[in-house]
Amino acid sequence: MLKIENLHAEIDGKQILNGLTLEVGAGEVHAIMGPNGAGKSTLAYVLGGRPGYEVTEGSVTFNGEDMLELEPHERAAAGLFLGFQYPVEIPGVSNVQFLREALNSQRKARGEEPLSGGEFLKLAKEKAGLLKLDMEMLKRNVNVGFSGGEKKRAEMVQMGILDPKLAILDETDSGLDIDALRTVGEGINAIMRQPDKAVLLITHYQRLLDYVQPDKVHILAKGQIVKTGGPELALELEREGYEAVA
């Protein structure tokens, strides 16, 4: 589903990714772990198409299509979802309004009919229930006044509503307490553990992987994948640290 070959990328003239190669198949969950400054968030931003990140070499294909040739909104319409480490606030725009516009924009790009207000609210209520998020929260402005855990749960509801093929989740566990961590992990499983979907989960810690069992764990260091293993690799990292394992 996702194939990255020899990817080099820089920002402001500084090289961050240095020949990263990775392949994620349909139905798989892959975790990427690594120390600060390794290039984890840069990888997420490059895949999402964030401005300012320049690919200088290599290729990225998504379901056989050249992802690097697509604009960010085209990548989203093709089925890519990027979850942020720090979800942004959008004052003056309600979650319901934002999510309905986003979903119908993607449906239009795919040649599908838009959802009516009633159809959308039914879908939103269903997905909010998976994440134990009160529907009243979705009537509030996007992330304004939300706690860290509420922001992450709201973002997972967004993922459920948009129903992507590939989710790239950048430190989704950041700022979550124990209960929220379990809820978010269960939500990821319910939404994305499907034979035609895939997840690239970027995290510092093993704790989220207790709930979202990855098929593979990759260690990213100095802009490259330096080691790959199963879930046991994350436990080894927790015990020994990056220097000992990588």
Automatic annotation (TrEMBL):
Q: Which Gene3D superfamilies match?
A: P-loop containing nucleotide triphosphate hydrolases
What are the record keywords, sorted?
ATP-binding, Nucleotide-binding
From the record, what ranges are coiled-coil?
Answer: none
Q: Do you know which PROSITE patterns this protein is assigned to?
A: ABC_TRANSPORTER_2
- CDD domains in UniProt: ABC_FeS_Assembly
Whether ATP-binding counts among this entry's keywords is: yes
Q: Which GO molecular function terms does the record list?
A: ATP binding; ATP hydrolysis activity
Which Pfam families does this UniProt record tie to the protein? ABC_tran
> Which superkingdom heads the taxonomic lineage of this protein's source?
Bacteria
Q: Tell whether Phosphoprotein is among the UniProt keywords.
A: no
Q: Where is the ABC transporter domain?
A: 2-246
- Give the record's family classification: Belongs to the ABC transporter superfamily. Ycf16 family.
Query: Which NCBIfam families does the record cross-reference, listed alphabetically?
Result: sufC
- Name by which UniProt lists this protein: ABC transporter ATP-binding protein
Originating species: Croceicoccus mobilis
Q: Which gene encodes it?
A: sufC
